[in-house]
Amino acid sequence: MTTSPSNSLRPVDSAHRGIPDEPRILLIMLGLIGDTLMRIPVARAIRNTWPGAHIAAVCEPLTAPILAHNPLFDEVQIFDRRGLSYIQQAQFYWNLGRARHDVVIDLYHGARTPLMAWCTGAPRRVGLSGGRLNRWLFTDVVQGPLPAVHMVDRMLVMLEPLGIRSFDRVWEYPVATEVHESLHAKLAGAGIQPATRPGDIVFALGAGCETKRWDDEYVAHALRRVAAGELGEGRRLLVIADQRDPQLSDRWRADAGVVFLPPLSLLEIGALFRETDLVFVPDTGLMHVALGTARRLLTFFQSTDRNLHVADRGAYRALYHEVCPYQPCDTKDKDKCQLECRRSLGVDEVLTAASELLALPAWDGLWGKTRVTLEMVRS
Fold it and tell me: Is the peptide bond before 194 cis (omega within 30 degrees of 0)?
């Protein structure tokens, strides 16, 4: 379960206050898929510093399987923000206190998570400044870097009070053999044979934010051109359907060479990405899954640091819209938005990028050295 330290820095004595050699550490990791995955480098830094630590996570029901299959975590607890009554939430907080953690780090920064951290009774409770009660609920309050800093680095700064000043940006998404077997069985049950084959391309183009969704007509046009052999003959298109727009899915189902997939778990989607030649996906939770699994990845409208992962892994390309000054979209002006961004990215540009990616060697699943220091992040 544990891994050996690699170029890690041990905490200095002052930062080590109240922390045993094999501490019990709780990470509050509520939030959506992408946000949860961006916090995993924090767990990696803790494991490198304390190889014998017991690392637990509190997360949403949707993301619990992801963390449970990651060997960095020894324990995963599910907290359903929307499904628990106030009495059930109070019971959850009470049980956290009985677990006797040595360190709690609030990586969610929500309205209730500072109280959750305080209820653990941990000797060290780390959280961001900002809330009126935070300086009373946390023992260590961190002044976060500027909002322009990528979220991965904003999370790593939370380790400063523990004396951890050097980190690896490693985007991990382990997928076990049994998950691949589950994927194949589910696709076979839906009549998709073989489940995957050389040359397969995955389209996962749904997005909750309209400004991250490629224009519907462009998607249909691109699917038809790929199915017609523009990216090579015999390529099969595996489409992860957008459940919020079934009519759009029905519009594409008649196209030859387009295979619509049954509902898959997030782990099965990771296995699918790992087995196929190319993944198309906008800046959604699935894009973050693809960053840790896809052999080749083409993503659209990514709203954060476009350079963060480009140098860290091969066969990856991010295409941006430049017609709007807001990256990400400013919700205050959405009532004025004409969604020009959806049409700013043409089909020719996307297919050209896909063709260039397919000519590159596939990513081998290994991250390069991505060492950063606290000083680099804060500067």
Answer: yes
CB 108 within 8 A of CB 97: no
Is 3.40.50.2000 the CATH classification of the domain at 24-172?
A: yes
Residue 154, token pair as written in the block: 């904003």
Residue 85: CA count within 13 A, CB half-sphere: 2
Tell me yes or no: is domain 177-358 CATH 3.30.70.270. no
CA–CA separation, 295 and 273 (whole Å): 7
DSSP 2-19: ----SS--PPPTTTTTT-
Output phi, psi for 153, to 5 deg: -70, -35
- φ, ψ for residue 260 (rounded to 5)? -90, 130
Q: Any alpha helices (H) in the chain, and if so which ranges?
A: 33-37, 40-49, 64-68, 86-98, 113-119, 134-137, 151-156, 177-189, 216-227, 246-253, 266-275, 285-291, 340-344, 347-358, 374-378
Cβ neighbours of residue 98 closer than 8 Å, sequence gap 6 or more: none
Three-state secondary-structure class, residue 230: coil
88-123: per-residue pLDDT in tens? 888 888 988 888 999 999 999 888 899 999 999 999
Per residue in 2-17, pLDDT (tens digit) is 343 433 344 444 566 6
Domains 24-172 and 177-358 share a fold: yes
| Cα–Cα distance, 102 to 91 (Å, whole number) | 20
Question: Which residue pairs, CB below 8 angstroms and at least 24 apart, start in 128-132?
Answer: 128/158
Spell out the domain ranges in the chain. 24-172, 177-358
Distances in whole angstroms, Cα of residue 343 to Cα of each of 16, 225, 244, 264, 333: 53, 18, 20, 29, 18
Please state, in angstroms and rounded to a whole number, the distance separating the CA atoms of residues 254 and 113. Answer: 48
Mean pLDDT over each residue of the chain, to the nearest integer = 83
Integer CA distances (angstroms), 201 to 30, 114, 120, 214, 232, in order: 32, 43, 46, 17, 11
- pTM here is 0.86
Measured in whole angstroms, the distance separating CA 315 from the mean position of its chain's CA atoms is 18
Which two structure tokens, joined as six digits, stand for 115?
């109280």
Sign, CA dihedral 233-181-171-83, equals positive
